[in-house]
Amino acid sequence: MTRSRLLALLLLCLLSPVGSAQVPVEDNPSDDPAVEARLAKLSHELRCLKCQNQTLADSPSSIAADLRREIRTQIAEGKSDKEIVAFLTQRYGDFILYRPRVTPTTYLLWFGPFILLLAGLVVLFRYIKQRRDTIPDQPLTAEERRRAEEMLRS
Amino acid sequence: MLRYLIPLGLFLVLVIFLAIGLRRDPSKLPSALIDKPAPAFRLPQLKDPAKTFSSEDMRGKVWMMNVWASWCMACREEHPYLSRYSKESGVPIYGLNYRDKTEDALAWIGELGDPYVLSAVDLDGRVGIDFGVYGAPETYLIDKSGNVRHRHVGPVMPEVWNKELLPLVQELNRQ
After folding, report:
1. Is A43 a residue whose pLDDT tops 50?
2. Residue B133 to residues A50, A100, A143, B33, B118, Cα–Cα distance (Å)
3. Set of chain B residues whose Cβ sits within 8 Å of the Cβ of A95
4. How is chain B split into domains, by residue range?
5. What CATH topology corresponds to B32-174?
6. What ipTM does this complex have?
7. Distance from CA of B134 to the nearest CA of A (A)
């Protein structure tokens, strides 16, 4: 990162609290380490919708904190991971999943690269075969044989 | 000839996909609630905490719920338009005061005016989660049978109102 960029970033950090008299975001970790372990596992697979390239585990935004709190509550209520993920996708859509589900709409995403690879291989093999077919398979003439042997000797 | 046209064709398809991709705003997410019942909630009212407001109260009406907060800069931007559009179109706009300090929220309304029929207080953002709110402002349009028909993320500016919201409000009112 260049120096000016770093400076700009620092300035942004300084500016951001202006006007944000938001209800403070607090993470109240549960006393139960099992709850925290499950939260950690789940929140690494879920996307923060505000800062979309971060997981719920990494994001400092208030919505991420709210969702972590919600997940903690639901774990404490005895909900399974599946139920919690279903709860979140019902409200926020599949986009909240960091790893897209395999559904008809995501087939292209999941299998597209393999289809492309296959297509590439087909083109490659056809090309090689075509080339091989066009190069005539003729024995050397006496003159060519003499020249080749001469080259090999020298 | 064909061997040159095929790569050119593929390239053009790629260009079209990239062009479409670049024009889309990745921060605007589709709502998972479209054409589904709006989540039921009952929350205290901002100006009169002794009274509550429930989404059930709005059965049989086309209404809008605007998620706002005093800390939200874009809410300030859309504020004058909300007041005007609510008056012009007759569609009731209810506020969801989202993760806000109540005294700040009251001061905000006192300073700028209150564009809402009333605001419900979602102090901890729990109702926001039910709606799939991920940032203020957001605006939900709910039909007579209580289904969410549209969500707009970001301020309701004239273009959004005239192109997205107003036509749908009019259509829903006719139903």
Report:
1. yes
2. 10, 21, 84, 11, 19
3. 29-30
4. 32-174
5. Glutaredoxin (3.40.30)
6. 0.82
7. 6
